[in-house]
Amino acid sequence: MIIDVNVYLSRWPFRRLPHDNPTSLVRKLSQRGVRQAWAGSFDGLLHKDISSVNSRLVADCKEHGEGLLVPVGSVNPTLPDWQEDLRRCHEVHQMHAIRLHPNYHGYTLDSEQCSQLLKEAHDRELVVQLVLSMEDPRVQHPLLQVPVVDTKPLETLVKQYPDLRLVIMNNYGAIKESRAAQLAESGQVYFEISHFENVGALEKWVTTVPHERLLFGSYFPFFNLEAALLKFQESQVGGLATSAIQYSNAQSLTAAAKN
């Protein structure tokens, strides 16, 4: 059993991806043993009508992956009435998590906009997925250069909201293992594994960061799904840590958000 906390629906804005239609995506996830996938939408990066983005996401999850695809809404605090988008995610769509893309939406982690959004998410006991990067800056479209999110303010944010369940996504080398361990100790901070690169990277993380704070994430279909699965073959992490990372930690996060 696997719970994948990092999946996207719809189309990547700059090229077609294999399995970027929901039918094919769900079939591939099922074939590889994924029983639940937390799905955001690529449309949430650039579209301004976030409410419609989230409504389409919910409809696609129900139509193509009822029980497997779990919608995770986008919220952009630079847009008017973002509080209503957040309310609809929680109260109308019954989402347990939201997904943030600060670098695509033009705000920093030390901004007042970010602080207000995290406070409201904290008050609603939502899981917050913070995406640090979507694409290697070296291959980005020349007219849309998007840097990796500056994570320097994270320690301050975690101290401000120590009970906020925060999942760091697409960690494109911005946070090393030792700093990740400190963040995990300071608050409810988790890390998904899609961007753990190099041979044995997962094993290295498990020796530094408590395995209770690691989550299976594939970043599928942008990344090959098998790439995330292979991390468990090339690393010696043990059965207990493997089951925790592949599903039980995500199960606990979901249960806590619903209680």
From TrEMBL:
GO terms for molecular function: hydrolase activity. InterPro entries: Amidohydro-rel, Metal_Hydrolase. It comes from the Bacteria. Keywords: Hydrolase. Residues 52-230 form the Amidohydrolase-related domain. Signal peptide: none annotated. This is Amidohydrolase. The lineage of its organism: Bacteria, Pseudomonadati, Planctomycetota, Planctomycetia, Pirellulales.
